[in-house]
Amino acid sequence: MSTKIIPKNKYLIFTVGAIGTFMATLDGSILNVALPTISNDFAVSIDKIAWVAVSYSLTLISLMLVFGVWVDKKGYFFAYRFGYSLFIIGSAMCAFSSSFEFLIISRIVQAVGTAMFAAIGPGMVTSVFGEKERGKGIGLMVMMVAGGFMVGPPLGGFLLNYFDWPALFIINIPIGFIGLFMTFKFFKSLPKPTLKRVLKIKSAAAMSIALVSTTFCMSQINSYALYDIRVWGLAVIAIGMFALFFYYESKPNTALIGLQIFLNRQFTSSIGAMLFMFMALSGISILIPFYLETIKGYAPNEVGIFLIIFPIMMFVFAPLSGRLSDKIGFQQLTVVGLLVLMVGMYFLSELTVDSTQNYIILSFILLGMGVGIFNTPNSSALMGSVTEEHRAVTSSILGTTRNIGMSVGVAFSTALFTFIQTQNSFLGDERIIFVESYKTVIYVSIGITGISLLFSLIRGQKRAEIATQ
């Protein structure tokens, strides 16, 4: 993609990807507000309505690696054209769903389009901004992620006050058309991929099935015993598919990226740090709204205001951290970010039934700062660890790692929380039982974050490209 059109239209090309990234995160955060309403309209239980979110996330996890390989062959113009078109179609289908089953199908269609944005965003940004400004570009993309999470809850509450829940999907359509228009205007003239790569789909498909099986297995542990075939059967499939993936990766004619890349300490450490950070964070985040609403008694709209604090901090600190990583490298910033995150988690572990509003806000500020400082340089380190030949697939690995970390973190933490609640039942007061059980989950999450910190420490320091070239 080294052509004169890129420096001239760098930020306009970035905007095409930014719109997709923003809409992908907005669509998730805005929908959470409406799940109780949708549940009532279709008369389905909470465990069934969860599939509106689960079907979306499983589709993302299953397709991101495949799309990452596909984009290497077809190019970014094809990817965004395909992604925006399916996202618009899926959003329209969701808005006009007349049954719960059709809504699930529509969410899958929508997620297929979103998977393109999530798979190739960091790779596209790295190509457009170049090595010297990689941290800056990824920082701007992380801002879009935070912006989607930040706008979603209040916008969802506003729309539900005046319209029915389909409005939350209809709002995607005009924005999607803007992104599609800009794709044709600025991406059509970009050069087609020159890398003559064979589309090695077997390895990507094996990993996708393994990841979906793992995530689905974790989600079933709360509902079924370990000896149930719905648990151990999925576990067997996951293990078999992981083994098949490593078999394909060991052979040059079927390898997606090759096992040798995992010998790259910068690549492997960045993946490990991201995986465990999102596992720890997601486990805490899923329980925070329950604490605010059921223990502290805040109304849903007030809970939404609290939850905005986290993405605001990410929005502020992610680009600053990205620009700084271009100058001083990534290790120091990732370590600092994780330490701040662990301090924020410790503050949360001290929450009680009587904790003040200011204490809660301070805890959320520290969490958002930590993730904002960590995420951009870690993503930049990952994207900078591979050659241009593997940039698109590495971008999809980044997104897949984030989503699998979040899914496994939620499944593990909710299962642990439920178990600890049972152990603490002798305490009597339900609010005290919740707080004490939540505290144990946070302690475990701090330990998981410590694993992420270890990965960041063993990765070593590397000066930014601007300093070494």
* Total strands: 0
Uncertain residue segments: 1-5, 463-469
Distance, first to last CA: 20 Å
CATH domain class name of the largest domain: Mainly Alpha
As a percent range, the share of helical residues equals over 70%
Give the ordered list of helices and strands: HHHHHHHHHHHHHHHHHHH
Strand content range? under 5%
Largest sheet: none
Structural class: mainly alpha
CATH topology-level fold name of the largest domain: Growth Hormone, Chain: A
List strands and helices in order, with pairings.
Elements: H1 5-8, H2 10-42, H3 46-49, H4 51-74, H5 76-95, H6 100-129, H7 134-162, H8 167-170, H9 172-186, H10 201-220, H11 229-249, H12 265-285, H13 288-295, H14 300-328, H15 331-349, H16 357-383, H17 391-423, H18 430-459, H19 465-468
Description:
By secondary structure, the chain is an all-alpha fold. The chain folds into 3 domains: 1-191, Growth Hormone, Chain: A, CATH 1.20.1250.20; 201-255, no CATH class; 260-463, Growth Hormone, Chain: A. 80% of the residues lie in helices and 0% in strands. It contains 19 helices and no strands. It has helices at residues 5-8, 10-42, 46-49, 51-74, 76-95, 100-129, 134-162, 167-170, 172-186, 201-220, 229-249, 265-285, 288-295, 300-328, 331-349, 357-383, 391-423, 430-459, 465-468. The two termini are 20 Å apart.
